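FAQ: What does a multi-protein file look like?

Like this. Sequence, then tokens, then the next protein.
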Amino acid sequence: MAKLGRGGFLAIAVIFHLVYIFSIFDIYFVSPVVSGMRAYKVERSQGTQPPAKRLVLFVGDGLRADKAFQSFPDPSPAGSDADSTPRPLAPFLRSRVLSHGTFGVSHTRVPTESRPGHVALIAGLYEDVSAVTTGWKLNPVNFDSVFNRSSHTWSWGSPDILPMFKEGAVSGRIDADMYGEEAEDYTQDATELDTWVFEKVKSLFVSAKLNSTLDSALREEKTVFFLHLLGLDTTGHSYRPYSKEYLHNIKVVDQGVEEITKLVEEFYGDGKTAFVFTADHGMSDWGSHGDGHPDNTRTPLIAWGSGVARPKKWESGKAPGHEDGFSADWDLDLIQRHDVAQADVAALMSYLAGLEFPVNSVGELPLAYLAGDMEEKAEAALANAQAVLEIYRVKESHKQTTVFRYQPYSAFSTEEDSIYNRSRAIRSKIDSGQFEEAIRQSSELLQHALEGLRYLQTYNWLFLRALVTLGYLGWIAYALVTVIDLHVLHGASKTKRTFVSNSTFTSLLIILYCSLFVQKSPWTYYAYGIFPIYFWEEVFARRSALTAGSKTIFRHISGFKGYALFAIQAVAFIAILEALVWPFSSNLHAQADSISRYNHIFTV
């Protein structure tokens, strides 16, 4: 092969780096969403009703957990009779915590943005990293959701959130009533966005009194009502979450939730409605969100109504759940706090409304929120674990057909530890009345399923990383040889290829491509594979340039003193380079460690 000149070398450099930059997407930005799973729900004997006939979900977009429960002087606008005595801003929601339901902190994951937060809450699916290709605005892969599993869902709110749940859902199953994008004006009073939602809900139930068809639809079982309340997020961005405007918006939301709760309970009159109030993400003190700061990742979760456990109260001291000190100024120390991961909320809503778990959900059902007996909780825990295991089964089946010598996840690698045998053992525990042990084993099985999903998601990482690393090392060596040849030896070096070397590198390329073909690898893998072979073959063929070039470059160095001085200079140069990149790399590692801790704690 003829040696390339400067133009050819630069062309190779550009093509190589463009192709290898794309490898980031194949390694880190592959969608975890798959299809073909069977849906699971809690199986009940004939005639047994689910905990609730319907579910109402309130999402206060951008509401921090601490602001929802802390006390402040009345932040009402100027001109009103404001009280300077610190009081809770959400007395109705607080009454649910104290006397009617269960509460805790829902821990979100980065990125703490509205779209991934709502997907986690409603679909039980954490951030689909492939959404980077759409600028984080839409999920490029359709996913299942609690709304899609309902008999019908009515939703009100922002055009940025509601449409994404209609994509891929059963046609006609989800109604989305949205205000125009022009309403999201940061220069206007954002509480109007929340008031608009509350008024629309009231209008729906008023219309039902005059429309028998609508009345009949509203009275069907397994219905869901979703109220997306964007005002807090908009106000927080404009005025910051410690401002009077933000705190006043909390009062507006609380009053609206109280009105809608009473309206729904009076309309149905059967006490069979479950209510969930939470947020998609929090907000930092400077009015931003997106990163993993605790102010952004901690959101309130309050559930009450049919099927929800009553609060667990302590006579004195501090109830469990408050050990971290985060809720010390909420004046709720005597009420047990039950924290969850954000995706767990989807599993909770599915259980309460008697729906199938969304097939892409990886949330763990928070049993502390359930009012059922131990047998009911054991059945629910097993169904939850089976739903997540189904995702693992489908992913594993696909992986087995596309890789050589598939190595199963270690926890499921033996016949005794197979998914089938583990599930059957748990069923046996339930049938024999050992409910607590069944719950423990179901929780353990679900954790193994989550770890197994992570194992399958990263199964090809070692191969791809090794291939990319060999490519970059080959590029460094190839560039060094080319620079020496062009600028030190002035093109005087000669290439030395033999039949053996040609056969060896050609055989390596054929073997690599055959393995990629058999494993049905994407075309990009072939591009990643050709560069290491090409670069290292060129380096081997032009190895004489390295020898001749090193003699020319180091000809001025002689004796022990000369080599020692060169070594000192090289070490000093490397130390300076490390000093330049150290602040950046240490900050990057700190952020990665923080994200890793959140991911580990709340998903594994």
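And here is the next protein:
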Amino acid sequence: MKFFIVAIFCVLAADVLALVNPEKVYLVVNDNDPDSMSIAQTYCRLRDVPMENILVFSMPSSGFVSRKTYFEQVESPIIRKLIKKGAIKAIDTESKDAFGREIFIPSEINVDFLILCKGVPWQLVRSQQSPSGKKYSMQNTDAASVDSELSACFIPQKNFDFACKNPLFKNYKNDGLFKAAQILRVARLDGVSKSEIISALRRTVDAERNGLRGRVYIDQSKYSPLGDKWLEKVKLLMSEQYFDVSENPDRALFSYSERFDGVAVYFGWYTYGAYGYFKEKNMSFADGAIGWHIYSFSASQMRNPVFWSPTFVRLGAGATVGNVHEPFLSMTHHADLFIEALLDGKTAGEAAYASIPVLSWQNVFFGDPMYRPFLVSLEEQVESLEKGKFDKYSQYVVVRQMNKLMKTSSRSEAEAFAKRFIGNLPDDAILFKFFEMRLKDGNLPDALKYANMIFERDISEDASRISIFMGTACLLSFRKGEAAVLGMKFCERLLDADMDSDFGRHIAASARRISQINPGILPSERMKNLFEKVDRQIAEEKAAAEKRAAEKKASEKKSNKS
């Protein structure tokens, strides 16, 4: 026992300053998926992982496998190859447990992360009953993600009808604990298409090089106090880092009437699938964005773009999580702990394991496990700006520094700093900051000055930038006089935006509001045509809803008679 304690202490001491070592990262490829190898090779090049760390297997091409298939064609081949590579030292007992899992007794794990690439199955489907004849249910199920089951493959379990505790939960200060606890940490590079996965990877590496830049968005749902508590803590943590934070208190997602630009951090819940800005073809998050939408089955269909996890990958997220089956809220990733670990300097992969209370369960971490979004400090980002190095996300550094100066120095110093960059780099977010501040001050003339400057900018086809135009139009639509006139100009210009039809409803709503408050401000013929189109759509939807309700009532009446 004394030797065991000393051994663990030595492991922890040796790894206190350790991060994820690329030499100890291994990638799993399914040679039945044509994209799998390409994704693995791209990751190796981006992160200096040896190409010989790519492990190739012939696995089922479906994302769903039975527990028997999982043990025989996924878990056992992976463990055996890692042992052969020397990445794991273990005794092969040449026996299986009652469920069919091969039993290995590990003595040393030298795998910092195992990355499953597109093509590797992601879900173990629920069995009808256990080998002893016990029937499974939604609450007591052996369904699990492949990733989480692999993580717990060396943890002795009497059955699989529930999760097992994760020793790494809340333990992000102990970098070497995963070795002592014999946890195989797993990440996944997956999504609808290879191009989306690789694009997200490249943008994530860029984000680490420049530091995470953008805004924070919190979609509160008021669905359960526990989830809302997590999101409140995220809001507080990011505000303390001087990020701009937008919070939506409604159960619906952020609407088209609100700005949704530069999404660097997003957390929300509890909506079935993505819609609104999330579904726009020209929408993307900021480079290396982090976060997720809490939903029970967010990762159950990785080839369906309606589901949340593939949506986040498509939008360019560098780190996100999902669930393949009902996880129950308390046994999902805790958003606040994830952010705390990242702010402490941990990688996204380490943060993912420090924020999940259970293993052998439904959870999946998507993205680059080596990613450190806060590696570059705000001070270093500002220094880069001062040297004339900037891109479209640099404006968010300016806004963040403004926030810092307003809290630590003075508003006048903050504004003087930001004004130096107006017109010298992409500045929509800076202008909106001034516009919104002046409105709150009650200084309408100055607010309109900044709104006019926004109007002069190129609206482009970028949904993120279009959202700033829409947010400006919406705020102006509640005003009278000159502000309302400018608001109508914004609405008319937004008619050219290549966006989903629902976006048009919000343009129409703002334009109608302006005309109602200001009868002298008349909409153009194009805008009137939009009004008519929206009215028709609403009438058709109402008629369809009434028809469904009538059919349901008739069906229930018929059923009651029988």
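Q: Is there any per-entry metadata?
A: Some entries carry free-text notes. For the entry above: The two ends are 70 Å apart (CA to CA).
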